[in-house]
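User: Quick one: structure for sequence A, then sequence B.

Assistant: Sequence A:
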Amino acid sequence: MPFRRMEKEESRIRFSIRAASGCESLSALCREFGISRPTGRKWRDRYHACGCVSELQEKSRRPHRSPRRSSAALEQQVIELRKRYGWGARKLTKLLANDGVQCPRTTTHRILKRNGLVAAQPARREAVGRFERARPNELW
């Protein structure tokens, strides 16, 4: 049996139209298209919900919100302090604590890094030479 080449969008459209017609069983269609039944139900339900094939495209899996992300006001405060003093995360965290704002040092550093205010540190160099001697206590 030769392999059939079909684009993902085209196969979703064909599957959804055939599944919406109700002439064939969902399990048989899923086997024919090589997808799982939960995926087939998802495509069929999307097509039923809107009635158009444009909704069959892949949806973004990115979260709509990030509940643990720092507030915009805190980020702006950290950025302003950095621009005013030029200090790093450790000292900025102390300044924020003096103002009554509790923000961990790592969070402050991530805010600075996210806004491009932290330069990458150069890699440490290897030691120039080893401090080995031929015999014990030779250095003495």
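Sequence B:
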Amino acid sequence: MTADVAYPDLMEAATGRIVIESDRDWFGDPRLGTFAVYLDHVSAGRLRPRDRIELPCSSGSHVVRIRQWWFRSNLIQVHVSNGRTITLTADIPRDSNLIRRMAIFLFTPSKALCLNEASRRPL
């Protein structure tokens, strides 16, 4: 899936790509499990469960964030070189026990989602 970019000047200047993938399962209506993707604080597209989105961008530093309802990820800063593709994975935190994850969703919704570079994905 390619993003519908709201600013056409960026498409013309695009020399790199940021790819965001989601491999999480979602039961029920997939629209409810869709992440909103933001590139440089501007809405860049929607990422459905078990899907991917490609964001063309210019070379240089960019910030990326995902959101689902009122839950958000931290801002991730990536540096894109000419012709380079950066791959990120979008998910919920899975590196702690269920009680801790529930507490994160309840008390810190601004850190409830994870956005990581594919090579730095936690096991």
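Confidence is low (pLDDT under 50) at residues 2-10. The chain is about 15% helix and 40% strand.

User: Thanks, that's what I needed.
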